[in-house]
Amino acid sequence: MLTVSGSPHVHGDESTKKIMYGVVYAMIPAILVSLYFFGLDAFRVLVISIAASLFFEWVIQKYLIKGPITITDGSALVTAILLAFNVPSNLPSWMVIIGSLVAIGMAKMSFGGLGKNVFNPALVARVFLLVSFPVQMTTWPLARKLPMTLADTITGPTPLGFVKEGLGTGQTVPQLMAHLPSYMQELLGQMGGSMGEVSALAIILGGIYLLWKKIITWEIPVSILVTVAAFSGIMWLVNPNQYADPLFQLLSGGLMLGAFFMATDMVTSPMTRGGQLLFGFGIGLITILIRIWGAYPEGVSFAILLMNAVVPLINRGFKPRRFGKKTGMVAANK
Amino acid sequence: MGILKTFVLGGVHPPENKLSANVPIQELPVPAEVVVPFGQNLGAPSKPLVQRGDKVKVGQLIGEASSFISSNVHAPVSGTITKIDNILDSTGYRRPAAFIKVEENEWEEGIDLSNELITKEDYEPQEIIDKVKKAGIVGMGGATFPTHVKLMVPPGKTAEFLIINGVECEPYLTSDHRLMLEKGEEIMVGIRLLMKALKVNKALIGIENNKPDAIQHMTELAKKYEGISVHALKVKYPQGGEKQLIKALTNREVPSGKLPVEVGCVVQNVGTIFSVYEAVQKNKPVVERIVTVTGKGVQKPSNFKVRIGTSINQLIEAAGGIPENTGKIIGGGPMMGKALLNTDVPVVKGSSGILIMKSEESSRKVESPCIRCSKCTNVCPMGLEPYLLSRLAKVKEFDKAEKEKVMDCIECGSCQYTCPANIPLLDYLRLGKNKVGENIRNRNKN
């Protein structure tokens, strides 16, 4: 008996699983950094988040949907690690479990599961936790000191929170900056913050891996970072006492994590490259608007979620360049 | 060599697997019986001119072109017509065909069977087109569009370039590659003839960079012929697509829904060119062609020169038989070829290859949900959104699919090849094209 099916009769080696585990591999540097700086607590949050997320996906698929079990496809694992990255390492375990339930149950499965959700599940959970447990979600543990540095790290808030609070009491940015970790420390991850966002370097390493493996394209991260740098740069030039410089904006908070790992989520980002540029621009813009004028010190999560909501609209408006649309009447090569 | 040219939008790079690239063309013995379908071209089938019991000679006209887009069919062997009956051909449709029992080896008068190269060029353009039409030449790359129709430039348009397709971008297939190596000189003459027919003074031959021997050989030969240049192209599927090849070679884009002549180009495959040479210089109609028989389990991957109508069974036997764990047999290449129901089908003018796949390569992988990765959109050489078009076809939104340019799809399969969720995108796109095509025809009727 011969198999008869339509062409093509061969398939490349791409698979959903390969993509998802590729993202997991890309997160390893940031995982290691979080373990180094936050120790056992980070390990606890990570393990609970993964176990709870996989468990909830399994329960929902088995008993509510009664469909195929796909917990090994790696998508829940990615969500779980990203969720852990988005919370402080000292968050109580039961809150992590609630976060997992919100991410998997509410943000992913209730929309129909993998590929159907409108919003990034890990971010929905983060924002849910942030508004439900504001105190626990903004009490940041101290990142361990790097052995070779002597500088004091700040306690309590993140650099972004510190600056926002300080500006509210009438201090200027340069005055506040003196109390903050240096840019080198921020790059390596020695600052207060969520588990996975502290080290820009680890995130960028992972981002390069994602780009190299063609899991993501450059459009979204680059447009976010450029927009943030440009917008905050203009504000900084206008009044450096009132507004932090662009490098500070790029290195602190969840910007790098958001730009490389959260906004690039395939399911919730636009399908065409033009659309992705607009999407990234919107995220960068909203992030700085919130950081400078909003009530929260950090705005990346809200910016991504807001832009997630307009993705269907962007997809409608941005079409790929069709072949034959432009008449390329260029003289032939001799 | 500098930066190699290629087309811009999309494309994929499947493993090339050109197993038979170094195997010289081998002529197979004439079989005891051939089955010759009357419709071997895109468009209307030919009108049968013979009946049961008739004696025919090799090269005798047995089916006459029945309309504008149609082409002649000739007897590929000499012998007796035993019956005219419907057969299941390689496309899976039932079509009328002539069964010829082979007797003797008697050729029609005036066909030159020598191997001597004839470089005579003093023909009138119309004379060349008439000879091409008479010989029943169709696009031998597999599209089987009647060649003489392509040579008739519509009034108001002018051809500037003759584009020669030596790309052979389908994995596994090597018939064009071997033909360029072994019949390069004849192809050059054929190109000169078509340049004359089209009244163009430039011909561009595009060959992908995975055939350095063919590029070198053709470049060497082209020096002797005026106006012919050879261009090495970066390996990228589907570069053999007409529109992609024109883009790669001239940087012109054929507008949506238009023919290549719109941008001054006419594209012909090297196999077609060789047939043109034989038709014009040797008076020989299309009675044979080169077919690659290949596959990972095949004992002797080969390039055979066979008579039209030979059962592909005979070709597979000559390549070492059907391997033990065969799961699928494809007429053509792995990207655009058609899976065959059985091996009892004849070689036709458009048969470029037979690919035998192992059972473990034969089944599709299990489909999973679309993760909106947009890889299908990125690889589409026509700038379409296969994920969207397949969804529109699935929910029967054919008007929307038409607006999203489903008819531009060239069915190259790059989207489905790439899809990490193994969604049969092209199945749905074909459905969409089918229904939208029907709607357009109905609209035009009213």
Draw up the topology in text.
The complex is a heterodimer of chains A (334) and B (446).
Chain A: H1 16-26, H2 28-38, H3 40-65, H4 75-85, H5 93-108, H6 121-132, H7 134-137, H8 159-168, H9 173-177, H10 183-188, H11 200-212, H12 219-238, H13 246-251, H14 255-262, H15 273-293, H16 300-309, H17 311-317
Chain B: E1 25-27, E2 33-37, E3 47-48, E4 55-56, E5 61-64, E6 73-74, E7 79-88, E8 94-102, H1 125-134, H2 147-151, E9 161-165, H3 175-182, H4 184-198, E10 202-208, H5 212-222, E11 228-233, H6 242-250, E12 265-269, H7 270-282, E13 288-294, E14 302-307, H8 312-318, E15 326-331, E16 338-339, E17 353-358, H9 359-362, H10 375-379, H11 386-394, H12 398-403, H13 414-418, H14 425-445
Parallel strand pairs in B: 1-14, 9-10, 9-12, 10-11, 13-17
Antiparallel strand pairs in B: 2-8, 3-5, 4-7, 5-6, 7-8, 13-14, 15-16, 15-17
Helix pairs in contact in B: 1-4, 1-7, 3-5, 4-7, 11-14
**How many structural domains can be distinguished in the coordinates of chain A?**
2
Instruction: Provide the CATH topology of the largest domain in chain B.
Output: Ubiquitin-like (UB roll)
- How would you describe the oligomerization state of the chains in this entry? heterodimer
Query: Approximately how much beta-strand content do the residues of chain B carry?
Result: 15-25%
Mean pLDDT over all positions of chain B: 93
Helix content of chain B: 25-40%
The arrangement of helices and strands of chain A along the chain is HHHHHHHHHHHHHHHHH
Shape of chain A: globular
Q: Give the strand order, joined by hyphens, for the main sheet of chain B.
A: 1-14-13-17-15-16
- CATH level-1 class of the largest domain in chain B: Alpha Beta
Count the E strands of chain B: 17
Report, as a whole number of angstroms, the end-to-end distance of chain A.
52 Å
Class computed from helices, strands and strand pairing of chain A? mainly alpha
- What is the CA-atom radius of gyration of chain A, in angstroms? 21 Å
**Unreliable runs of chain B:** none
Give the strand tally of chain A.
0
Average per-residue pLDDT of chain A, rounded, comes to: 88
Biggest contact: A-B, 44 and 81 residues
Beta-strand content estimate of chain A: under 5%
